[in-house]
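Summary of Year 1 activities. Much of the first year was spent building the evaluation harness for sequence design. The harness presents a backbone, in tokenized form, and records the residue chosen at every position. We chose the following record to illustrate the format because it has been used consistently in internal testing since the harness was completed.
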């Protein structure tokens, strides 16, 4: 009897199985159980049609790393044979398609560092955030049922002038500025939407018409709508009986001063350049365009030789 060769591969493993619509050539999956140490990577990444092979490989490598592992360009260049420029370009590809996000943070000692966020399924993350935003907006728009208004009683009519009486003076129309403020749609919309921040700030049409000019004055003085809304809704008392009166008091007492006269526009050289992420060491630095920081452009050896 011939001796059995235990190291010979099984013929069934390489057997060609013909099935309708399947080519006899191509890839065949030989799957073995892995315990421990494996990473689940979605086909949306491994079969991405716009990412380069290096970008896909870097994304899978970063997803397999433990939390807090360094993934800066210098560390990845020591791990893989590709140079820093190719690795930096691949990381920018992953940022463009949402698999990576590099966020700048300031440490306790004042340094600016780069935090890298890796998303294993950016489409699902965006969908989850959209659902959460919609739920938060729905909770903010929930309005309490209106309270029954008290009986105002009989309405007293003002005395009517006699037909023969002559007016002592002709009434003057309000100045153009007052008419503009009284019909200020952004200010009126801001007042109408205050009930979304606090249901107790449900104003009547008359109150909105009365408070629109003060809100328009805030906006004309350079205050943003969010600043006006914060000034009106922050620190409200526990018991709010007259919301319109409280808003009128705050609009009068907290009115900001007018903006100073605009100074001449500074030249572009006086403005600081935006923060960029270094393609060599992943450090944040100021420059007009992406690239490398001064230390990576002029290494220590070259500075010593100079």
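For this record, the design step produced the sequence shown next.
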């Amino acid at each position: 009897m011939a001796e059995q060769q235990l190291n010979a591969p099984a013929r069934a493993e390489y057997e060609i199985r013909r099935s309708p619509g399947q080519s006899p050539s191509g890839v065949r999956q030989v799957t073995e159980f892995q315990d421990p140490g494996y990473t689940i990577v979605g086909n949306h990444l491994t079969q991405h049609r716009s990412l380069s092979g290096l970008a896909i490989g870097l994304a899978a490598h970063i997803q397999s790393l433990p939390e807090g592992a360094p993934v800066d360009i210098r560390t990845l260049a020591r791990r893989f044979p590709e140079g820093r420029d190719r690795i930096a370009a691949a990381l920018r590809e992953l940022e463009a398609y949402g698999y990576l996000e590099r966020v700048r943070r300031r440490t306790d000692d004042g340094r600016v560092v780069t935090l890298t966020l890796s998303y294993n399924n950016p489409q699902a993350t965006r969908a989850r955030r959209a659902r959460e935003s919609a739920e938060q907006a729905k909770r903010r728009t929930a309005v309490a049922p209106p309270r029954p208004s008290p009986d105002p009683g009989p309405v007293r009519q003002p005395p009517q002038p006699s037909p023969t009486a002559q007016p002592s003076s002709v009434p003057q129309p309000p100045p153009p500025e007052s008419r503009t403020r009284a019909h200020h749609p952004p200010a009126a919309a801001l007042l109408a939407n205050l009930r979304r921040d606090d249901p107790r700030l449900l104003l009547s049409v008359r109150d909105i018409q009365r408070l629109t000019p003060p809100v328009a004055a805030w906006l004309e003085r350079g205050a943003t709508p969010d600043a006006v809304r914060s000034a009106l809704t922050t620190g409200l008392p526990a018991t709010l009986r007259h919301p319109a009166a409280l808003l009128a008091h705050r609009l009068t007492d907290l009115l900001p001063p007018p903006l100073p006269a605009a100074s001449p526009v500074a030249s572009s050289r006086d403005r600081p350049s935006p923060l960029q992420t270094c393609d060599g060491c992943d450090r944040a630095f100021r420059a007009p365009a992406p690239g490398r920081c001064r230390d990576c452009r002029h290494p220590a050896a070259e500075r010593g030789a100079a």
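The domain at 34-139+275-306 is CATH 1.10.10 (Arc Repressor Mutant, subunit A). Quantitative recovery figures across the full test set are reported in Table 2.
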